[in-house]
Amino acid sequence: MAPVATILQWKADGRAEGIAEGMALGMVEARRSDVIRVIRLRFPEAPSDVMSTVRGMSDLDQLGRWLESAVVAQSLDMFRVMANSADSRAAQSGRR
């Protein structure tokens, strides 16, 4: 009986892990979509490299910082400066 219980537990653990991973990926995709939507609304002239950079990012916290920058930046150039600054601050705090 113990092996059956173990197998059932493995299946349950795998299912829970898959659900958690799917939720995390969904959150990242939603945040990416939010960043892109704000950039397109605020800066319709945004070049494709900006969108490609956002689409390539999978760090939820970084995407959150970019979203904040996109909301408050007065121009696309200012967004780039703020986003790069946020990147630098995040890298420095990660080294501590």
Structure description:
This protein is mainly alpha-helical. It has one domain. It has four helices and no strands. The protein has helices spanning 2-42, 48-56, 60-72, 76-95. The N and C termini lie far apart (49 Å).
From the structure above, extract its key features:
4 helices, mainly alpha, about 100 residues, about 0% strand
Which SSEs are present, and which pair or pack?
Elements: H1 2-42, H2 48-56, H3 60-72, H4 76-95
Helix pairs in contact: 1-3, 3-4
Number of domains: 1
Please report the number of helical segments.
4
Shape: elongated
Proportion of strand residues: under 5%
Structural class: mainly alpha
Q: Return residue spans where pLDDT drops below 50 for at least 5 consecutive residues.
A: none
What is the typical, i.e. mean, pLDDT? Answer: 88
Quaternary organisation: single chain
The value of Rg in angstroms is: 19 Å
Helices and strands, in N-to-C order?
HHHH
Amino-to-carboxy terminus distance: 49 Å
Q: How many runs of DSSP E, i.e. beta strands?
A: 0
- Biggest pleated sheet: none
Helicity level, as a percent range?
Answer: over 70%
